[in-house]
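Morning!

This is the sequence you dropped in the shared folder:
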Amino acid sequence: MASRVRHVTFDSSDAYRLGQFWAAVLDGSVDGDASPGDPEVLVNTPGSNLLFIAVPDAKTVKNRVHVDLQPQDRSRDEEVARVLDLGATVVGDHRNPDGTGWVTLADPEGNEFCVERSAAERAQTS
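The structure's back. Tokens below.
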């Protein structure tokens, strides 16, 4: 039997704070009795888990791996607005006049991720 991805791990300066951000973005929950200052925080989400580990090193370069989010119950633009309200920042706006494209954002510690069109939006332009 092949391996499976158990969770995706993010180095962070504040594992709890970053875990809280991603739990809100993904409608997930911080596992167990995690609290501020914990060096390791697991976020459970529908279909995947993210693990945040506190490390002493600051992020210095672009991520080599990032997450692509596809909204399930709202449009890409609505999701971008929601995630910005949670504390993300825009890194690059790749939306096109015809409605295609995506937005690259960064979480509160600078980890890049993208928000793409929902399945419904993709179906409208097929």
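Headline: The mean pLDDT is 93.

More detail when I'm at my desk.
O.
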